[in-house]
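User: I want to check something. If I give you two sequences, will you return the structure for each one separately, not as a complex?

Assistant: Yes, each is folded on its own. Here is the first sequence with its structure:
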Amino acid sequence: MKQIKIFGFSLLVALLLALQLSVGASYAQEAGSDPVPAAPPVLDLFERASNALEQGTVSTGTLELLRQQLVEVRDRNSRVVETGSIDAQTLAAQLRALGSPPSGGQDEPEEIAERRKELTDALAEANAPIREAREITNLANVLIREVDRQIRSMKIDSLLTRYPSPLVPATWTSGFQEINQFWRRLQRDIQGELERPSVSKALGQTVPTSLALIAFGIFFIVVGRMPIHRLLLKLSERQERGGRALALAVIYNLSFLVLPAIGALSILLVIPVLDIYPNSARIALTAAPIVALFMVIANWLGHTLFAPGLTRWRLLELEDREAKLGLRLCQGLGAFMMVEVALETLQLDNAFGDSAISVLSVPLIATAAVLLWALAGIIRNKGADASDQTQETAEPDEDEEIEEASVKPQESGFLLFLSLLMKASAFLAVSVTLVGYVELARAAIIPMIMTVAQLGLGFMLYHLAQLLVKTATDREDTAPTPILVTIGLIVPLVAIFTPLIALTWGARATDIADAWRLLIGGVQFGDIRLSLDSLIVLGVVFAIGVLITRWLKNLLRTSVLPQTRMDVGAQTAIVTGTGYVGLTLAILVAVSTAGLNLSSLAVVAGALSVGIGFGLQTIVSNFVSGIILLIERPIKEGDWIEVSGHMGYVRDISVRSTRIETFDRHDVIIPNSDLIAGTVKNMTLSNKSGRLMLPIRVAFGSDLERVKAILIEAARGHYTVARYPVPFVLFMGVGENALNFELRCYLKDVNNILTTQSDLFFAIYNEFGKSGIEIPIPQRDLHIKDIDKVLSALDGKAKADPSPAS
């Protein structure tokens, strides 16, 4: 773990490449090797490994060496087991040629029996080396697993090493004393180095040179590189697109890596020029270039991902303020990695005691945790903004209420998850540091910082590859990348960065090698063996089958079927059925070509048939109905249908059920059997046109011809109303309070029926008002019984109680 931290990201890449080359070379060298018997060196290796494992006191380096030797023995013998023996295969073929031995107590001819016995004995002798190689392989696997267990146990013990807690005041006192002792020891070592004749004589020349190198490096990093950046930026902005523009953009981006590296190299040259290597910091001075590399890479990644002031080249869609903050956070994390790695190299020099390490780690890890937490907040905001943007674009039109946003930022969920991991890592690192588990805190926060850097590098490479593809194909920068190209870019990046991230989090190179061996050798599932090569063959053959199927469907759809008398529905059914048949054949051919044995699935099919007979009738019915729906296409995604009392738009058709989204945004799951056996009303099956019937009521005495003209004019003037069939008006009858009319017209898209209806009502009401045509108000006649008696009583009461004169 410490070596990974010290040598950083660049060394991880080199380690992975060297590992792959070494594994491939070992396999190539072992190909065709002869059987390896249990020779004394092999037995001696097994004995030494067993003794080392029983003692439990062997160092990690020794265990790694033993493991490497055991792996070599295992691979050689496993190769023997896999390839077998040519003689054994020949003898087995001859033995099969004799046929099966007779059963039921029948006698076999003596000549054949003797030949069978002779071949059987020879086959057993030929298989002896294979059996012995298999035994050696199994024993080596057991020892390798035990070695791995002990190595992991040692690493866990190292992570759980507890230093003095910084919460105890005495830790700070002793820590500062140890730091002071280191400082005095370092001064003595430097003084001793200066007193060396070779150094003291050359000080007159080395000191001015060193000061000049330091001055040049600082000046170049702070001021000198800025004109070069501005020149490259100006040149890159002159080219809007094309290969030249992309090349200039790449050069401008790399300038943030190369130019600071030149300045840092100028400063680092002071070390060999002075030739002063004090014993207290010898390893730290040797690792100084790697230490500086962290800051250079962090600065470059910050400018690449955030690009303050350059929205065009910014990979993360952030505001300028957030972009500047993101750059500063990346630079701060790079500075932390520099100091942290320098501290760990000083630990290798035994410069500090446990108290000093605990005291120095608290501010370092706390600072890194704050920076990582802040960076996680920026990433989280970016992911949340992408989600909000998706929700905004997913809002339906208030008129139609039918379309749903189809573009969703796929990285938003991953960014939110990554931000949570970063915050959890920062919180854990600070918590365990305060308790005294410094190594555990480093294992929590340093790999997370390096993982974020690796993901940022992969994100940059992905976008660069996309730009290369778009430039080569002369596509717009804003145009979407084809899905096959996207997959072709993501798969190799995942294959490269997954081992790197695993190594960052503590995996060993041997673990990566074992995983690679497992991919190559495959995993056995009953009679089926899955390996990387078989999966590649399976995927390639299936992809070829899919391409052929799509070509055949396109040929039928565009060239063959249009020349027949079939209707559109029948043509669609044939094309869809051809697609399913082609996919089925592609799967069967791919499985057969990959060498997968699916005979064991017959047992599963038998058990499934029994289950269907007892309780899966409904599921099977829905499944068969789904197949019929997908082939016949009586409904399709986006259709406006009404079924089982529910009306809405079809959003998804699966083999078991169909999801309908109603107008109030509720999802209704309809079993496919209801769509086949029930009555379904599809408003948009053959076309999107539909009829709108608009009821209109006018008052008695209105000018009927004017009413008819207003209705016809309103329909003809709306852009959603079809010109043919022409709109027309029907006089539906005389009602109790009004004259009833109905405007009937056909819409180009029935999905606009609510919008069109509302617009027509607005227009008709306004025109009625201008023409003096009234909208009737319901009227009622009130009849009172014995009205004469009521009037007489009221009149008598008025005479009996006259009102006083005014």
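And separately, the second sequence with its own structure:
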Amino acid sequence: MGPEKAGKTRRGPGRRTAVPWVLLGLWVAVLAAVGPFAAKLADVQHDRAVDYLPASADSTQVAKIEDRLPGGEATELVLVYHRDGGLRAADRATAARQVADVARANPLTGTPEAVPSRDGSTLMYAVASTAPGTDEKKRDAFVNDVRDVARGTDGMSVDVGGPGALATDAGEVYNSLGGPLLYTTVGVVAVLLILIYRSPLLWLVPLAVAGVADYLSMGVAYGLHQAFGTSVSGQSSGVMTILVFGAGTDYALLIISRYREELRRVERPYDAMKVALRGCGPAVLASSGTVAAGLLCLLAADLNSSRGMGPTGTVGVLCALLAMLTLLPAVLVLLGRRVFWPLVPAYGAEPKARRGLFAAMGSSAGRRPLVVLASGAVLLGALALGTLNLPGPLKQQDAFVHRPDSVAAMETLARAYPGKGTQPITVITPTGRADATLAAVRGHAGVASAERGRSGGNWTEISVIARGAPQSAAETATIKALREDLGGSYVGGPSAQQIDLQDTNARDRLVVVPIVLASVLLILVALLRSLVAPLLLVGAVVAVWGAALGIGGLVFGPLFGFEGTDPGLGLLSFVFLVALGVDYGIFLMHRMREESLSGAEPAAAALTALRTTGGVIASAGLVLAATFAVLTNMGLLQLVELGFVISVGVLLDTFLVRTYLVTSASVALGRKVWWPGGLSRKPDTEEAGRREPVAVG
């Protein structure tokens, strides 16, 4: 019996050592399998208007029906020739020659006609072609070909605008996100990890694992698109990368912190990692599950871009979770203690006893919890008032950080044709009623002109020019009136799309926000076995969201000069801040619960939890805020605004709400924070410790 036991003991370490190598081999096999699919994600990424529009809106139906008309979707452009002080005869001749060259080189849907401005400074030509169809690459090629032909000469400027040019310019920004977004994110995370770990090697491990997770997420996202038709846009794929590196690095910070702690108590790295994962694994699983649940709630949105972001964001979070719970531990165990050099945690050593920043902050929150709580609540409430100062809805021409050619064209048109529509409104009507619909449209007070276009599939297209300028109050009123008066017809076009985006975002907020709150609350109740603690955490993250939006209102217009606010900012920032903010609440409250189960009094449990988890939460918060801040360097205002609000919200949540407000509220409530669970009553400590296992460090 003795020799047999001894043999098992000798074989055990070998088997344990093999596990990391097996995991590493499995990951190599997985990456080899998904590699071909990851490379194809860019091919299925689409940023056409229909990929962002509401699924049930008039403008979406117009876009879909236009795809089925003869020639398919039309790419509409406006060539704008302008000279300060007035165009010359030679300018008009040059414009006519260039437009003729465009017509000869491309199959157009009609003959472009010159529309001069009243002051004679500007000439406008409307150009449209169905040759590109729905192919974005062909559309971009057509737009760029027109721009190559239409060039200014000797003081005369030429800008190519219109819906097709705007789409091409936006597409160029989205296409440029992949490389710069990834490189900038990696660089930011690398710098922060070097500062956090102060090690020449350790920072590389979580960063490399996050890169592997990002590659895996691209392959899975492509498979999801192929299997279920999930839409993939530049916005959703960019946010997926941010989530992989941001959330993944957060999980790595928690795991590595617990692993370092266990290495001082456990001799073998393999065994120390087992204990670390057993301790912090449930918290990582719960936090990632909360984020995934919150993101999946976006499936209830009617806006295509929001609904598509739910699955792709969830893929990013789950791939990061899988990599950090399997590949990261395997690599760390194989590298051994030396990966922490020069601050190697020695077996049997005690960490240096020192009064840290979070211990001091916790003590200040614990001395006067009600004062701290009230002061923090007043501050957050005051900041939230800034939402009243948010700029109005973002217009198409204001959506770019750097003004492209298409926006310059729109600005010139607005100055040269004041009070006149320069962007077509598209009406799609049943062919049998086309004449009656055309007559009704022409008779409308807000319509300057209307022309019958293509017919096919029992539908007819009518191009309408409103009397009001694009996206003005007058044009908006005309579009809404046409929709009310033309029963059975659809009214779309660029301006109608903006109206639908605003209306649908308002609808989605009313639907998605309660679902997110309910799902997150249910997860927290099941995890913490309490009702008060989950309500406290959810209330805190909602307050953070309001304050972060309020700060946006204080700086977007007055400081940054933004002309508008993206209609989807409120919903997307809410989902991300609530889901990601609750992450840190789980880390803190779970440790607080562990201390309470060990017999600590409520105040001591709260302060100990802050002291032991504060550093990790602060590091994770900095990394997550920095990764979302990368979006503020992108070329579209909707990404800049989203990145700013989420970054500010994460920092508020990390350094104000978690540190002071949640801690002070927990101290003030005492055992009531665990109501109605067993911890809300003073139990026999020893018996409670036997009944409920300790889950998280």
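Because they were folded independently, the notes below concern the second chain alone. The two ends are 39 Å apart (CA to CA). The longest helix spans residues 2-38.
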